[in-house]
Structure formats: structure tokens, C-alpha cells
């Protein structure tokens, strides 16, 4: 039995066009692979192997994040080291000045210089880097120290003056201070005044810093302390030394009482300077650990990058060949379509 079908010019015209959409998609895919150097659809190409590629990329992202956070930690450590050097230099300069002076001149000469260095101590401990106060501990958003001198009087000065009045019955600088004995000034300094510089009282009157320092994860397996708190003991000892020298009116005391007070000042300055040396050494070790961790992570990142490239990279020559082949097919399709559109019965009716 013979059957007949219908021949349609429209069907003939559309036949080449049905594959153009697929060819255009293939061309876009091949072009993207040439420009990026990796498969356009990694999941479709690798299949089950895509989990391994994603895992490698995840590890690489973690290393990149750690490297970036190490940059911030290094910035904080560098600023801290610079500030500590300034603080220690000031302490050592004060100590050298005092030891170079005759004992009967130390109290009068030290008052003015230590007043300025007490203000400088507060300013240096309020150092910021990257928008954070480096001596704030975990409370890095707030300036740690309030200047001792100022109007109105700072809580620290109010507390020290109140302790002096409570112990002696008159304010610092009062003419009655000339009658203070060496034993009395020693008792006050070792007792009530020292109590003002305990960590608890320092935090309540001098500092808004957190005593908890910042611990930074510098590699996949290492965590180090990368900050110093303004509540640390060396700063409290320096603050006490400067307050004794500048805030108790030592010039009005007897020579023997002055000698006792200034002896305490030099002791505190020496202890603080030694502690600052240890502190700077600890931070230096942290800086070295960060440098070494960054070097190791750079090698790990390079290895991961190579493994990712092996999994996801395309052969540029093969991708270029596909682009050329697809382009040729599309040109042939367009040419065939044009020829079919020129077919018409009208051309044969005359």
C-alpha cells in the first residue's frame, strides 16, 4: 500500500535552524573554557570527581582566609612593638636621668619630666592600628586609658589623691607634707598606693581594656597570642612610678622621705623595663611564627592550586578546535538555510 506525505517549505527552512541553538550553547561553553582555562560546568564534566575538586577549593579558601587574618595580626603586632619600644625607651630614659642626678635633686627634677611621660604612656597605650586599639585586649574598640591629668580630674587621680588624704589627713603638696617620715611614706606607697595599681583597681579607675588578650589562629594547627593588654603589670608599674614622682608632691617632703620614694620609683622603672623586654621578645616569637606559617601555607596553596588545575583545567588547543568546528557548522547551517529559503515554486512557474 502506498502512502503519501506532505512536503512543506517551512519544515525545510526550519530544519537547519533547530540545531543552531545547540551549536550556540556549545560555542558559548567552549569560548568560556578558553577564557577561564577550566571546564565551564565542572560538575557535569567531572561527575563524582567534583567532590574532590570542591574539597581542594575549600582547603585553599581556608588557607587564603588564614593568610589574610595573619596580615591583620602582623599589623597589630608591628604597631604594638613600636609602641612598646617607645614606652621602654621612656622608662629607661627616666631611670638614667634619675640615677645621674644627686639624690637631693631627684624629686624636684623628676616631677615635671615624669608628668609628661605619664601623659605619653596613656597616649601610647591608646595606639590604634586598622581601626582597633592594639592594647585594648579583646575590647579593641575602646581606647584603653584615660589621661591621668585633666579637667575634670580622672578617676585614677581622684582615687590616688583620695588614698593620700585618707592615709595622711591632707592632700598632696600641702605644707604639712614636710612632716611625713620615711617610714610613713614607705607605708603609704607599699600599702594604699600599691593597692591602687592592682589589676582590679587599675581596671576600675585607669583602664577600660580587657585583660584577656587576642589569640589568633595563624595556621591549620597553630594559635598564638597576638596582642598585649594595657592592664599588664609592666604598664601598671610604670604608671605607679610616674605617679609617685609627679603626683605626690615629693619636693615638699624631707630629704630622707624623698630618698625612700625615689628609691621605689627607680625600682619600679627597672622592673617594668625588664618585663617590657620579655614582653617584646614574646611578641617577636609570635611574629616569627606568623612568618613561618605564611611560608608553609604559601607552599600548601601552590600544591592545592596545582591539584585543582589538574582536575578542572581544559586543553586550550582542544577547546580552540571545538570553537573552530562549531563556528564552521554554524556557518554551514546559515548557508543551507539561505539556500532553502530561495526554493520556491514561483521560480518554476512561468
Automatic annotation (TrEMBL):
Residues 267-349 form the Flagellin C-terminal domain. Its main location: secreted. The keyword Secreted applies. It is found in: Secreted; Bacterial flagellum. Keywords: Bacterial flagellum, Cell projection, Cilium, Flagellum, Secreted. Residues 7-139 form the Flagellin N-terminal domain. InterPro entries: Flagellin, Flagellin_C, Flagellin_N. NCBIfam families: PRK06008.1. Flagellin is the subunit protein which polymerizes to form the filaments of bacterial flagella. Belongs to the bacterial flagellin family. PANTHER family: FLAGELLAR HOOK-ASSOCIATED PROTEIN 3, FLAGELLIN. This is Flagellin. It comes from Methylorubrum podarium.
